[in-house]
Specification:
- The chain contains 3 helices and 4 strands.
- It is of the alpha+beta class.
- It has a single domain, classed as Nuclear Transport Factor 2, Chain: A.
- Strands 1-2-3-4 form a 4-stranded antiparallel β-sheet, covered by helices on one side.
- A hairpin with a 2-residue loop joins β2 and β3.
- The protein starts with about 25 loop residues before the first helix and ends in a 7-residue tail after the last strand.
Length: about 130
């Protein structure tokens, strides 16, 4: 996978409070994310850093698109609302904020993950009903 060049003390885009090199950087460089929340955070960071290679590599083959082009979006923040793991399955609920075409938008998603051969993969996500925000 392509390495992302960042300064040692750059905050991680996923807003974990850690630096990128202490947080999502190792996953982007090929290490296996330890749990669904770490994978979800690293996928958010990949969107923020323009890493479609990483997004495709961590998308389960049964649901992955053949190709992925990232639109010009500026990612503004991430809030993890809930993360749960049971064996080789996991769910993470999050809200991500972005600016696209001058408008601030929110993506509220409940994502499903599966672990195969020691690696976590994103399966899919559902948007909750608007009244659950």
């Amino acid at each position: 996978m392509k390495k992302t060049l960042v300064r040692p003390h750059t905050p991680c885009p996923c807003e974990s409070g850690k630096t990128y090199l202490q947080c999502c950087g190792p996953w982007h460089d090929g290490a296996a994310a330890p749990d669904p929340e770490a994978l979800m955070r690293s996928r958010y960071s990949a969107y923020a850093l323009g890493r479609p290679d990483y997004l495709l590599a961590t998308w389960h083959p049964s649901t992955a698109p053949g190709d992925l082009e990232l639109s010009p979006v500026r990612w503004l923040g991430l809030e993890v609302r809930h993360a749960q793991q049971a064996g080789d399955a996991g769910v993470v609920e999050f809200v991500a904020r972005c600016r696209e075409a001058g408008r601030v938008q929110r993506l509220h998603e409940i994502s499903r993950f599966v672990r195969e051969d020691g690696r976590w993969y994103y399966i899919d996500g559902q948007t909750p009903d608007p009244g659950t925000d």
